[in-house]
Amino acid sequence: MDDELYLTDLVSVDVLQTLQDSFSNMTGMAALTTDAYGTPVTVGSNFTDFCMNYIRESPLGNSRCMRCDKTGAELTASLSHQARSYYCHAGLVDFAAPIMVGDVMVGSFIGGQVLPGKPNYDEFRRIGAELGIDPDSLVDAA
What we know:
- The chain has helices at 7-10, 13-27, 49-55, 59-78, 121-131, 135-141, and strands spanning 30-35, 84-87, 93-101, 104-114.
- By secondary structure, it is of the alpha+beta class.
- The mean pLDDT is 92.
């Protein structure tokens, strides 16, 4: 018998989506809710054009974004179940906060897509070229 707790067994996807959307609308930050392994269980809220329409539209970029989502969940799981900030592969700041039931992590709340400072357009052009995205379009989105 599998005794593992799953987030969506405890809270419906609709409730998670509503909570996430409310947080995202209140803060203006992108947000996503994942299971304990970093697999999304909700649809992303307020993802930036930079991320959604450019980076995640590139197969390589999307693959890297999915890895960043998993990294956020892994950070919270491995570091005493504490919220952590980190940089995504495109240079934006993200955060991950664990969703706990007692001492068991059942999910992660991930958000961010925030520029850490003044945009580095040369770096965005480099990222665009690496991911097969028109560099000037990526700079415009940034």
